[in-house]
Write a structure and sequence with these properties.
Elements (H helix, E strand, L loop, with lengths): L1 E2 L4 H8 L3 E4 L7 E6 L3 E5 L5 E5 L5 E5 L5 E5 L2 E7 L14 E6 L5 E4 L3 H8 L9 H4 L5 E3 L5 E3 L3 E4 L2 E7 L4 E4 L4 H8 L5 E4 L1
């Protein structure tokens, strides 16, 4: 959306309180704190304040469209999902999205929604492998793809459902047959044997 001094009310309605990217400023997400007829007041993940003066030419707002995705957040895999009833807000916000940390037993714990967390999601998240549990004892769960996570207790899940179990000792993944293709894509070249249950 092009934000100008003529449509500041629309910007206020749809973007205030949300994380967006200004195309002119690159890939950094900014939280829009306030929109006035003359400016957009925002802050980046490091806490640096930004005032964008609204003019005729305008600025391009690129809103971050969250969909259910898994990413690594410290010692836990995190799941970001959109709240369907709150989708009228264009950017990513605590009103229209939720972030959960996946605990070692596979349970979810709602996580705070802040600029650092959003930045981890936006900035091309990395994914880990099951071997990372051996090298890092602090890990409770890991993001193994944009859709799947694994827990230290040996579970593999997606969409708040456990769909497989892995055994590190005999390097085997036991999975539901419905997820055969996904498990083959994730573990086909990892040295793990796949067993459908």
């Amino acid at each position: 959306m092009l934000a100008t001094n003529h449509n500041w009310r629309d910007v206020q309605k749809y973007y205030q309180g949300c994380f967006v990217k200004f195309k002119e400023l690159g890939e950094v997400p900014y939280h829009i704190d306030n929109v006035t007829p003359s400016a957009i007041h925002a802050v980046n993940p490091e806490g640096k304040k930004l005032e964008v003066v609204l003019c005729e030419e305008g600025y391009s707002l690129d809103y971050i469209i969250p969909r259910k995705t898994v990413f690594q957040m410290g010692d836990n895999a995190a799941v970001l999902e959109r709240v369907p009833a709150r989708m009228w807000k264009k950017g990513l916000s605590y009103e229209n999205s939720r972030i959960f940390a996946v605990l070692d037993n596979g349970d979810y714990s709602e996580y705070g929604f802040d600029a650092q967390t959003v930045n981890l999601f936006v900035n091309k998240p990395g994914y880990l492998t099951l071997e990372d549990f051996s090298s890092n004892q602090r890990l409770e769960s890991i993001a193994i793809s944009p859709r799947f996570y694994a827990t230290r207790a040996g579970f593999i899940g997606t969409d708040q459902q456990m769909v497989a179990k892995f055994d590190k000792d005999d390097k085997t993944v036991y999975h539901f047959s419905l997820f055969e293709r996904e498990m083959r894509n994730l573990f086909g070249f990892s040295g793990y044997k796949l067993r459908s249950v």
